[in-house]
Design brief:
Helix content: over 70%
Shape: elongated
Oligomer: single chain
Strand content: under 5%
Strand order of the largest sheet: 1-2
Distance between the termini: 37 Å
Number of domains: 2
Number of strands: 4
């Protein structure tokens, strides 16, 4: 009985690792951005009289356009607002000056938040409707954001050289996180990474496991197989789900996953790390 339970636990753990591993890179980046943005919001609530938001007004034939973070994401408009705001980056004359650092963060925050929300929006569109058009939209958004990432990363690293010694824990923590970001210096690599990522998502989302005695009854990873591995107690049923899904996915994923990891490791090395890990 003890060995049986151990096998069950190993099967579930292995299955869960495979599922989480495919999501790790994308969602780690989203969580990373979310942590920084949330901490900046809290920080500036106390440091500045004006609240920070992604609301922004632009004049267009005497009309004002409001961007509401709780409203529908307007990809074209938000990218346009970011394009204009990026040009307004404050002058940095002293990387050791905390006031200059705060002023730069205040400029950075609304731009980063818009890009983060637009990125999540186009990724969600692809995940819920896997089409070539949505894949191209996701790649296009990655390319639009890349110049901003390349601009702010070296600046954040310069600030971090001084802020890591600051007595202000918020500044120390924020610049430490920003300085540890990773970005690609090559648009072709950005395109290829985005394409490989979408191919992996496609395989994971469309692969199905069929019943042994009824090949017409087939189930996708989500929600059926994920839920089954959480609640099923029967060993044979668990083995069928785990082995069936891995057999169906394994050969398809390998030629995509390996070059995908190579690209991510290349990005990491370009940013001064030994590898992605």
């Amino acid at each position: 009985m003890k060995n049986f339970l151990i096998i069950i636990i190993l099967l579930i753990s292995s299955f869960g690792f495979s599922i989480s591993n495919r999501k790790q890179n994308h969602y780690n980046q989203q969580q990373f951005e979310s942590i920084i943005i949330n901490s900046l919001h809290k920080y500036f609530t106390y440091e500045f009289e004006e609240s920070i938001s992604i609301n922004h007004k632009i004049e267009n034939n005497n009309d004002e356009i409001e961007v509401d973070p709780n409203d529908h994401v307007n990809v074209e408009l938000w990218n346009k607002l970011n394009e204009e705001d990026i040009k307004k980056m404050p002058v940095i004359n002293d990387y050791s000056n905390e006031y200059v650092a705060k002023k730069w963060l205040k400029w950075y925050l609304p731009i980063a938040q818009r890009y983060s929300q637009v990125g999540a929006h186009v990724h969600w569109n692809y995940m819920t409707n896997i089409t070539e058009e949505n894949q191209k939209a996701m790649t296009a958004q990655n390319l639009i954001r890349s110049p901003f990432s390349r601009l702010v990363l070296p600046i954040a690293k310069k600030f971090n050289e001084y802020m890591k010694y600051s007595e202000n824990d918020d500044l120390k923590r924020t610049f430490g996180r920003l300085a540890s970001s990773i970005t690609s210096n090559n648009d072709d690599d950005v395109k290829r990474t985005s394409k490989l990522d979408s191919q992996l998502e496609d395989i994971y989302s469309t692969t199905k496991v069929c019943e042994l005695k009824d090949k017409k009854k087939c189930y996708p990873l989500a929600p059926y197989l994920e839920r089954l591995m959480q609640i099923e107690k029967d060993y044979d049923r668990l083995l069928w789900a785990w082995k069936g899904w891995h057999d169906e996915c394994g050969n398809k994923i390998r030629p995509i996953y390996l070059p995908y990891i190579d690209l991510l490791n290349k990005h990491a090395k370009e940013n001064g790390y030994q590898d992605l890990a």
